[in-house]
Amino acid sequence: MVRVTAGEHDGADRLPPELLQRAAGRFGLLASTMRLHIVWVLAHGERDVGSLADEVGGSLQAVSQHLAKLKLAGLVRSRRDGRRHVYLVDDPQLVMMVRLAIEQLLQTPASQERRGGVGA
Asked: Which run of H or E residues covers position 35?
């Protein structure tokens, strides 16, 4: 496992290609509006598929497919609660990352973002 901390100066700007590929894959999964919304909702508590579908405005089938991808990537997990499966985010750092991104965007006017004001 490669560990890179923010305070390192000796080559910390050079990341191994396999680490970049894994990071891009994770960001790619979250690039879907529906999957990002699912993670956002699950960051606030466990839900079953029906509740998630209601909250994110998707069909049961679509939400199930997105959950399967997120689960396969290790971003969410499920547990049985009686006859139903309940889903939760399996990575507290992912919760923090998504919350930070959303909260930052909530504080930034969309017009400023279009002009390149965010991260430019």
From this structure: helix 33-42
Q: Residue 47 and residue 6: Cα distance in Å, rounded? A: 34
pTM (two decimals):
0.76
Q: Which two tokens stand for residue 73?
A: 């990537």
At 52-90, the pLDDT tens digits run: 999 999 999 999 999 999 999 889 999 999 999 999 997
Question: Please, is 34 exposed, middle or buried when counting C-beta atoms within 10 Å of its C-beta (0-12, 13-18, 19+)?
Answer: middle
For the chain, the C-alpha Rg in angstroms (whole number) is 17
Q: Which range marks the domain in which residue 30 is found?
A: 17-103
Q: How many domains does the chain have?
A: 1
Contacts of 11 (CB under 8 A, 6+ apart): none
Query: Is residue 97, in this structure, part of any structural domain at all?
Result: yes
